[in-house]
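REQUEST FORM: STRUCTURE PREDICTION
Request ID: SP-0412
Submitted by: Lab K.M.
Chain count: 1
Length (residues): 277
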Amino acid sequence: MPSDRDLVDAIRAELAAIDPARPCDRAAEAAGLGPILTTREPAILRLALRLGGIPTPVAPGALPTATRHLTFEVPSLDWDAAPDHCRVAWLRGRFLARGSLSFATGRTHLEFVVPVAEADELARRLTWVGPAPGRRERRGLGVVTWKGADTVATFLRRLGANAALLELEARGVARALRGDLNRVLNAESANLQRSVAAAGRQLAAIDQLDADGRLARQPYVVRSVAEARREHPDASLSDLATRLTIHRSAVQRALDRLERLALHEEEPGGHGQVRST
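STATUS: Completed
RESULT:
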């Protein structure tokens, strides 16, 4: 299974490979990438050049190695007047230029880091696709975030990231199955531990009652259950009931009686009446 980083790279590469056919979509996506784009991702650099991005020189050492700086000479998108396909193209460009994805610890998180003045408008535009995102300021920049696998998947699918999203959905299914399996195993383990502990108490009680002679004075069913427990210390209550051809509840009552008798003294002539020591 691909790593989180590999999956993010695959999603971004798939979106960057989309080549808008309409001139208006090309202009809208260029506007989303710009007006200034700084990237070191080859797929996004190729997209920017296809859409008319102009490589812009910067001072030596101003950018990390392999990072490129481009500008776009296209008008900003009139969002309210734009058709749906232009809105999708603009959002795709803005995500590739300013967006980031995280799947750390199984939580899906999409974040845009933009100039503070743009954050409110970007958040408004994102509500066209999904619920209102969160907004905050961090180190002088606006941060717009979406959390939740369903919301982020809807957004990415709308942008055109279909192939990579299949892997994301498969990961979600696998994670859910692992969670269900772990819950079942934990429950089974807890039940087994309780059964082992109960059997240990029952065997100790049977040994104690046998040693002081009280076991022999118990009713036939209780003695039969005690003998079956000794012979089959790992058997479940249902298994003991099947072996003795009695109801499971009768086995449970007999074992409970044995444990109580081991903790208390039987009253004289009580045949099961007990009093605390």
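NOTES: The first strand starts at residue 36 and ends at 39.
Reviewed by: T.R.
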